[in-house]
TrEMBL record, chains A, B, C, D:
Belongs to the class-V pyridoxal-phosphate-dependent aminotransferase family. Its cofactor is pyridoxal 5'-phosphate. The keyword Transmembrane helix does not apply. Soluble hydrogenase catalyzes both production and consumption of hydrogen from suitable artificial electron donors or acceptors. This subunit catalyzes the tritium-exchange activity. This is Tritium exchange subunit. Keywords: Pyridoxal phosphate, Pyruvate. The modification N6-(pyridoxal phosphate)lysine is found at residue 198.
Length: 388, 388, 388, 388
């Protein structure tokens, strides 16, 4: 195989394409993390990061992957043996459940078919049944990266409130943060879990916890052992622009640049763009005569689309052909969706023509793999993009 | 207008998209241009640059634009009042003619309609008529950047040889070098003029002259005044890895990286890729029901395609809509083609999906500008790309 | 204050100056962490990282700070209530002790005066007394970043062996890794804790655990709750070039480049260079008539030197003057050394003239702060640097 | 020899150390040089570059080396056979003379000993003798890069004015621009020649001509053949933010960043810094017991210092030792100074500690080369740096 020219199409649902502007920001020299220039950076970030989460409260930033931020959400709020309520919306919801169990929590796991989000009625029902208030927390993945289904947090919040249940609401926004409308404060979320490598347009390496007053108040009672993830010393040090450990300075440079970019475009515009790109992608998929995995149009994801192939096709073969022939990476089917779906990421730093190039690549790849597709799918997508 | 996300589509016929690998190479610290590390770089480049020109002879590298390399070709080989034969193949051929005149040369300028390359028969005729051998040089633009027409150098060479005429053959490869098959030695070219910002995938700032033995031998007799462009001191200094002036070190870093990339892909593969992308682009244009400016299919350009619109349309309006709505730059109509054509660059560091994205953007832009196009054009292009 | 020209002198004991070559490597586009290119990178790093630790065994790489790697060493090998033996060699040894306690371990903490390393005789004595083998692990900081004292791991190992005690040996090499001779396998260390931002010349953001067979065998019995830090799934996934979470791709790019640089210089040469720079620094300090904090010349640190001022001086005032006037960052006195010492980092990507510039800055800053110094100190340092 | 750690000390008198901030600016993607974003850049630069030259008039920017800007100054103002007055102040003044002769000008070359600047009395005398006003231009090198001698432009201007002579004043500021006080307008200079790679802190690749009204008025009468260097089409195109050729976009990105840095520091502060560093360097040289080549203290250069060794020493051997042992590049002796002097560049993006490191390297290198030096030289330099 010859060396490939041109820019790789990284259209997995994260890591996303890091803008060269962010890469250049990250290439600045590392500085003294105890000096005045660092403090200025950290104090600036402390405020600037809040709007992306839709919060006025504190956001803790970890040098970690997103799974680290999952762990932080649990160990800061819960104690060994605590019961938590979780929902099988897909692969990542299942992994978070596994983590909770490994950390010594008891998980009530509501089964699901991986094509729908969390059912607010199920939340209501479970909590209503929990009259003893034994459930300490509800764990929800906002946007399932393995399925392209977005759960409706406001309705889940309403279900909790209607049940007058005191459980904390912990929400994973790994693949929605900075891409899909999200409001930590307005929606009454207690801990929001995020990461750097998706809508925030950064390389992997930072994890986030946005924290409500209720979660902050609960933390001192949480008895899961913790040190690295402990919010308290971080929040204390952050007051003065520092960290109790050596922070990931260069990723923080990149974070500042990425947040500036989101501000410049405007978060509402960012969300609208993602929504438009998602609509164009679904128009293509449906126009091709294929099935979008997500079955509820109120739960369509703005950041990725999982495409379900018939049982006679191997989705990974399609992906392999597309990678070999067109130098594009798509997301694989995870867990029980392996071989059945491929996932198109349309989040982060993306524009219409790159999305159009992406969809042409998918169409050609499907054809080369022997999947019958109606080329009208592409035109349908272009119609969406062309509309004002 | 809101800030734009995603990567700008730079699809003018140069400057082309500089690979990030080349940008990083250029970001290396500048070094002492009289020290051993620089000499190693320069001696390496001296050899490594030859294959792109198809020559075993010397190639002079100037810190200059391509127009500087035009001037160098003239002042090193010609004397005040010398007659040269040139051909009106387009805007840049006309500009080169103007330069020759400003420098004090007499130009026999064969008129043309900007839709064809140099006619070898016209070369034969003119030279046959010049029995006194008053014509000192024949100036040809290999690939007219303003029209997307590629002149057939081997046939022109044959015409000169058949006429047994001693004129030097000077060829501009500004937008063909590194993109379209070119053979300085095999085709008996005396001076090949090139630049950095097209097929070589670099930013603008370097000009090139590849020089035949015959041109080298002619240079001492050339009496046009010169100092900066003088080959002699440069060739002398280059022997030892140095320059008689301070060279553009960081662009040379980039040049090394770009040449490595061309080697890795293989020049034959590079040319085949450009040819394939050109074919896909023409398939789209013709499929849309529009006209390719170049009228001779043996002269289709591998690096750019000029699209001719009907008189009722304004090509610059199409370009403006495409820039505003889809963040893509296309080439404008130059000189007498202003407003009538737009040009699609498909050269340099490009791949199938970026070209596909480009063509979708052109199609949508045409539609938005009210130019009737048949969407089958895009499918025709994809068929070319999809074929093995 | 006017903007400052020139390059900041970052002479804290880490983060160190990241070579521009590493910064450029980190600026490469992020790729699919489940694709073949990533697997190639990860499999290469898996082997290439071993020699820096002096091990043939596995090294786990975390997206984390060094404190994360501390936690990983503990939670993978120990169970709630386990006794560990630790030594008060300075600020970081004390922080590691605190972490162990927070995680639910019982720490036997041998007090110290922060001017000496771990006394092998004390190790021998404590272990000999522990006939019931209640001590599960010995925690040692190889090079105390707060004091510039290097503990003698081989002698500590010998003490454990002489006592025929089964305790695991856990060693923090945060500020020695890649700077001071270290041999995980030869010295019988069970878990070596490292990080990216010191001798490895990277920005902060990666933590490391090198793991002995004995530690690997102990891990399944360790009952401290863990998920993120759990070695097992990482080691499994690493076999195939992957990670059970999204790894910090761009820092891994930098890691490969940094490891290549260490290979090119040669680890023995790297250690010798650090040793020479440390000797030059001490020559300056002692020549100035000041005191090196470390009192045992067998424990002088190769990577940093803490300078002890008389009680009449404020070390932070000296640092502030040096930062304001000479744009150089030095390390502050930590914990009980606050105000009493400042620390000169001479590790990572450093050469003679940068060290010389550093020492001139320290000398001038001391003079400006009113600390009487003999300028012969600088000449003494230059004599060391000048010697073959 | 082993690979070297740390950052190379590039202390030649240009190219200078390019700030990483400028390198990052240059790494931005190349854009359409005919589009609105480029126009904005060009129009901004058009104004922003003026203060560095001390002019309110136009400044032409060429993709070229500084020698190109030399040629531009001549061909835009002079005609074949014109007489020009020039002065043998050093190697570069001699090269400019050679260029003028090659271009067909007649040069009155006033001999010199390479240790002094242009003598204003000699200017007065020559021009007074030229009652026929046959001298068309006076060519002066402001700061001779080969000798470290700065000619006094205001006194030369006064001499021309006193002689009531109409000759144009052409001044080379290659190694003074952005480093040493210079005032194109106030000093009545007609063409100022500059380049990118010295005080402007850029890589090589840009040449500059600042142009007085008188020079602009003279240009149409100048009959030296020209095309590339012709001011007229460039000035026309610049009005709208464009160039008549493809400009060196990425170097222009760097230029903007460098100009911002000079603005942030303030030009007066920049000049004062260079002056202080020059004083410190001379203090070292004289303290070592060596001779500064420049014999007139009113002509000491603020940007470089040439050190004259006794005939028994080989300056290039000293340089070689310093390069091999301390990874520092110094300037060689050029032309008739070969082997007799080495040159220390202290211009561009430099701070006190890098200069101090430089001087320690020179001192150690001299000692290793067997040149007797008094180490008090270094302390003398530090006294200058330490003083407020």
């Amino acid at each position: 195989m010859t060396a490939q020219s041109g820019r790789h199409f990284l259209q997995i649902p994260g890591p996303t394409n890091v803008p060269d502007r962010v890469l250049r920001a990250m290439a600045q020299p590392t500085i003294d993390h105890r000096g005045p220039d660092f403090a200025e950076l950290a104090l600036d970030l402390r405020q600037r990061v809040k709007p992306v989460f839709g919060t006025g409260g504190p956001v803790v930033i970890y040098p970690s992957s997103g799974t680290g931020a999952w762990e932080a959400a649990l160990v800061n709020t819960l104690s060994p043996g605590d019961r938590v309520l979780a929902f099988e919306t897909g692969h990542f919801a299942s992994l978070w459940r596994d983590m909770a169990q490994r950390l010594g929590l008891t998980v009530d796991f509501v089964p699901g078919d991986w094509r729908r989000g969390v059912d607010p009625a199920a939340v209501a029902e479970r909590l209503a049944a929990d009259t003893a208030h034994g459930i300490a927390a509800v764990m929800v993945v906002h946007n399932e990266t393995s399925t392209g289904v977005t759960s409706r947090i406001p309705e889940i919040r309403a279900a909790i409130d209607d049940a007058e249940h005191p459980a904390l609401l912990l929400v994973d926004t790994i693949s929605s943060l900075g891409s899909i409308d999200y409001r930590h404060d307005d929606w009454g979320v207690d801990v929001t879990v995020g990461c750097s490598q998706k809508g925030l347009m950064l390389p992997p390496g930072l994890g986030f916890n946005a924290i409500s007053d209720k979660a902050l108040a609960a933390a001192p009672q949480a008895r899961l052992p913790k040190s690295y993830w402990d919010w308290a010393p971080i929040l204390d040090a952050n007051e003065h622009g520092f960290y109790p450990y050596t922070p990931a300075t260069n990723l923080l440079y990149g974070l500042r640049e990425a947040l500036l970019m989101l501000e410049e475009e405007g978060l509402r515009n960012v969300f609208a763009r993602h929504s438009r790109h998602a609509a164009a992608t679904r128009a293509a998929v449906q126009g091709w005569g294929l099935e979008v995995l997500c079955v509820n149009e109120r739960e369509y994801s703005g950041s990725l689309t999982a495409v379900l192939l018939g049982a006679e096709h191997d989705a990974d073969k399609v992906r392999r052909i597309i990678l070999d022939r067109f130098d594009m990476s798509l997301g694989t089917g995870l867990g029980k969706l392996a071989g059945r779906v491929f996932r198109i990421g349309h989040l982060g730093d993306l524009n219409d023509l790159t999305l159009a190039g992406t969809l042409t690549g998918v169409q050609m790849g499907l054809e080369l793999a022997g999947v019958a597709v109606d080329p009208a799918g592409l035109q349908a997508a272009l119609s969406v993009l062309k509309a004002e």
